[in-house]
Design a protein that fits this description.
48% of the residues lie in helices and 11% in strands. By secondary structure, the protein is mostly helical. Helix 3 packs across helix 5, helix 18 crosses helix 19 and helix 20 packs across helix 21. The mean pLDDT is 92. It is found in: Cytoplasm. Its EC number is 6.1.1.17.
Length: 473
């Protein structure tokens, strides 16, 4: 019987959950679900100066918002330092590691000598076979691994294939610092082993780490997990992803009005695909996802593509779910707190009633809220510049005619209103657009809005007539 798959997502809490980290978490989560295994969450917080509780909270909130659940409690790497130290000392006893008493001055001298000879600045193994009894007084030693010096270390990678590292390039790196704290290399290996991690899925910027970690697994006689190093995400222009491309925290995408299900669908296709399928249910992703299908080339982040996918999910969303999602991000968006303060039973009802039309025209929740802003506007409406221009003398004359035609309407439906306004335009020998423009300006305060008949229905008879009356009074 095969060993159950255990993946892990292991972020450092030195900042928010960025988009690359979110994709790594998603791939780990999908593979665990696909194989009926588990995904664990390990917070790599051994860097005490840079690790913050706020960052831990942001990472956990981001994962929860994306719908990526983990098994068991999050594990703090820092809480396991005694175990890491124990393994480092065990390696010394086994002859696989040694105490190194090189002083900072000696190390500086080594680096400068290597540079002068045109070699990489590396530790020269001076204490590898030296008797510790010759240690200088007052120097606290570090522990270094006895890395193999001949041949090569091979990382058998499910994405990159076999990657060969000449051992002469992998020096005797430090595994325990002089203050007794573990280095990242040691902590990761010990934690992955103790947590039963079978598959390590992470960014390909960790490939060199994988070679060093393989040396540590072998030194302890432990099984090396299956490695899968996924290419990093680049911007649409092919350059390394930066903030201008979209290298933002997951919280920023929430505040930009993206739906978690849409962001998940977009992220899964950054470096992995299933035929030509664009829109995938979570069930489909889980069913289809396999690490062997991850692309070797870097994926490109494209906001336009993300917007298009988000727009599709918005149109497919239940009206009430979309209404709740829009209201939930009001505190996070520009002008949202003012809108939140204006919420009452009447405009909530109008917003929900208008959702079928509003969601057809929006690609994000922010756009949806902006398109619905007319619902929350106080009377008399503040007009933007274009709306003011539309309500010139000619526009107000047209508006007076429309008001008279609409005032007699008792059946306030889209079909009936369409019929009345078209009739009025025909009788006044005006194009429909010429009539709709000042009407839109009076109803919304803007020159651009959802369809004018939709706006009339959303606002209802009394509010619509009141807004028109305000402009022709």
């Amino acid at each position: 019987m095969s060993t159950p798959v255990v993946t892990r997502f292991a972020p450092s809490p030195t900042g928010f959950l960025h988009i690359g980290g979110a994709r790594t978490a998603l791939f780990n989560w999908l593979y665990a679900k696909h194989t009926g295994g588990k995904m664990l969450l390990r917070i790599e917080d051994t860097d005490r100066e840079r690790s913050t509780k706020a960052a831990v909270d942001a990472i956990i909130d981001g994962l929860k918002w994306l719908g990526l659940t983990w098994d068991g409690d999050p594990i703090s790497q820092f809480s396991r330092v005694d175990r890491h130290r124990e393994v480092a000392e065990e390696l010394v006893k086994k002859g696989q590691a040694y105490y190194c008493y090189a002083t900072p001055e000696e190390l500086t001298e080594m680096r400068e000598k290597a540079r002068a000879e045109g070699k990489p600045p590396r530790y020269n193994g001076i204490w590898r076979d030296r008797d510790p009894s010759k240690a200088p007084k007052g120097v606290k030693p570090v522990i270094r691994i006895k890395a193999p010096q001949q041949g090569e270390t091979i990382v058998h990678d499910r994405v990159q294939g076999d990657v060969h590292f000449p051992n002469k390039d992998l020096d005797d790196f430090i595994i325990l610092r002089s203050d007794g704290t573990p280095t990242y290399m040691l902590a990761v290996v010990v934690d992955d082993h103790d947590m039963g991690v079978t598959h390590v899925i992470r960014g390909d910027d960790h490939l060199t780490n994988a070679a060093r970690q393989t040396i540590l697994f072998n030194a302890m006689g432990w099984d090396v997990p299956v490695m899968a190093h996924i290419p990093l995400i680049h911007g649409a222009d092919g350059a390394k992803l930066s903030k201008r491309h979209g290298a933002l925290g997951v919280d920023a995408y929430r505040a930009m009005g993206y739906l978690p299900v849409a962001l998940r669908n977009y992220l899964v296709r950054l470096g992995w695909s299933h035929g030509d399928d664009e829109i995938m249910s979570t069930e489909d992703m889980i069913s289809w996802f396999d690490i062997d299908d991850i692309n070797k080339g870097a994926a490109r982040f494209d906001f336009k593509k993300l917007e298009a996918i988000n727009g599709q999910y918005m149109r497919m969303s239940d009206d009430k779910d979309l209404f709740d999602a829009a209201l939930s991000i009001l505190p996070e968006i520009e002008g949202g707190k003012e809108l939140e303060a204006k919420l009452n039973e009447k405009n909530r009802s109008e917003f929900l009633k208008g959702m079928p039309e509003l969601k057809e025209r929006a690609k994000t929740l922010v756009e949806l809220i902006d398109n619905a802003a007319f619902i929350f506007s106080d009377r008399p409406l503040k007009l933007d510049e274009k709306a003011t221009n539309l309500l010139n003398d000619e526009g107000k004359t047209i508006l007076k005619g429309i008001y008279s035609a609409l005032e007699s309407c008792t059946e306030w439906t889209k079909e009936k209103l369409d019929h009345i306004i078209r009739n009025y335009a025909e009788e006044a020998q005006l194009k429909l657009g010429k009539v709709a423009q000042p009407l839109r300006a009076a109803l919304t305060g803007r020159a651009v809005s959802p369809g004018v008949f939709d706006v009339l229905v959303i606002l209802g008879r009394d509010e619509s007539l009141g807004r028109i009356r305000d402009q022709i009074a």
